[in-house]
Specification:
single chain; about 150 residues; mainly alpha; 6 helices; about 75% helix
Length: about 150
């Protein structure tokens, strides 16, 4: 049996590693390449509503990546990011093989799987979710019934 603290440290490391990758990609779309260039690339790949999609993807990657790093709303962030990776697979990488150097799907598959795993397992003890859960539970428990 793996000790709980080991699972929590591994969850922290996984959240930070995956989160940093998404923050970097979101930041690049917003501040380095720019939304116009990102939208143009999306359009070339057949992504529907490329400008809106570029904004949506950039913002979700940035903010959900930050959420993973700090451990806030990890299940929601994980599902949103996994959905983005499914879209990246469908519109860009499907049929390109596995190796990223050949346009393949290895990165989106690995990131998507990691995000799904984090969504299911949660952020662990070293997360804001863990800190805030008792506060939310206490607030709900002490709430006066309506009416």
């Amino acid at each position: 049996m793996i000790p709980t603290w080991v699972r929590d440290v591994v969850a922290l490391l996984a959240r930070i590693g995956v989160g940093v990758v998404f923050v970097a990609h979101g930041w690049r779309k917003l501040a380095v390449d720019g939304i116009a260039d990102t939208a143009a690339a999306f359009g070339e790949n057949g992504v529907p509503l490329p400008t809106l999609s570029a904004w949506l993807v950039a913002l979700v990657e940035l903010f959900a990546g930050i959420a993973l790093i700090i451990g806030l709303a990890v299940p929601v962030a994980g599902v949103l990011l996994a959905a983005l990776m499914l879209g990246a697979y469908v519109f860009v990488h499907a049929g390109q093989g596995i190796f990223v150097s050949e346009g393949g799907a290895e990165l989106v598959v690995a990131l998507g799987a990691a995000c799904l795993l984090l969504a299911i397992t949660g952020g662990g003890r070293f997360s804001l979710d863990h800190v805030l859960a008792p506060l939310a539970e206490t607030r709900l428990r002490h709430r006066e019934p309506a009416g």
